[in-house]
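User: Last request for today: this protein with magnesium ion, please.
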Amino acid sequence: MFDLGFTCGIIGLPNVGKSTIFNALTSAKAEASNYPFCTVNPNLGIVKVPDERLKRIAGIINPPKTTPTTLEFLDIAGLVKGASHGEGLGNQFLGHIRNVDVIAHVVRCFDNPDIAHVESSIDPKRDIDIVNTELILADLDTIDKRLDKTEKLIKTGDKKAADTLEVYKRTKEALNGGQPARVFKGPKDEVLGELNLLTFKPLFYVSNVDEKQLRCGRYTESVKEIAEKENTEMVVICGDIESEIAELDEEERDVFLHEMGIEQTGLERLIKVGYDLLNLITFYTTVGSELRAWTIPEGTNARSAAGKIHSDMEKGFIKAEVVAYRDFLESGSLTSAKEKGLIRLEGKEYPVKDGDIIHFRFNP
Ligand SMILES: Nc1nc2c(ncn2[C@@H]2O[C@H](COP(=O)(O)OP(=O)(O)OP(=O)(O)O)[C@@H](O)[C@H]2O)c(=O)[nH]1
Ligand SMILES: [Mg+2]
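Assistant: Here's the final one, the structure of the complex with magnesium ion:
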């Protein structure tokens, strides 16, 4: 009946531009000022996910209303060394990260002697290490507590506990070696997923640059190296410019971007990368006057997908009429897709594919 939102948490050292980026993203007015810890209360904002396919479908069927899917952003207070042991806003900070689905790690890549840096110099690699180390330390705490519990379970003869213990031990070893739990993404997902470790969440880097760095990129290079090593993404953004762009109305913005020769704003890239890392898929519905995009985890079946829209549609599910995005595009209209036999009738177990355009038949 309602959309269960996914959240991207914005983290990083104090004064690196998190709130500036958050404000530009949401045009909400979180307080951005040259003062470490100005974001004491986390701020939540909802943004539209840029969607090329949605635009193209809309271009063909011209619906009166188009509704994109959304992603929530949480602006989290700056973290400092020792946060995992309660320094700064330590526990509060880590608690907020625990609730997000994906992490945008903002790294300061702009020189500006007027704006204080907690470590007194610009050094992206050092900054990233500080933040990641705190997350790893917090996870080690979690693992240690669980290890104790699991060892007790083994003594009571719990066979499954032995396997779990093995996974925990290996994860602990990796964390001790400075690696995030994320390196175990894959077969052990369930065991580790249940622990809700901070370093198990998908993370990408955001290099916050000034205009000088946009051209030369000495700082961003070192962030990029780290991102590549960790097999993740990096987005370069100029917080200051993005907040100016965010103030423009849509038409002015398009003209401005066109003149600058930019297709997509840094913010749009940031949202897209965050959304993509969640490993979700999008399907589309055209009901009445509204074309709408919906987000579901990969592998969701047609019946549950219908439930995303309304619980009655899930309960009374009969069939799903499905056309693949490509087929729709090539046909040029739903009518023509139907004539060509490209609209399939699928049952409740059909795993919805990314890009499917679906009409659900149900008993109201
Ligand atoms: N030159 C320059 N200054 C920036 C940029 N982004 C942010 N700033 C400035 O840096 C200062 C801190 O920005 P905030 O966005 O409040 O930083 P924050 O990371 O949210 O800080 P905390 O909430 O205290 O952890 C402000 O004075 C911003 O104007 C940028 O891209 N370039
Ligand atoms: Mg802030």
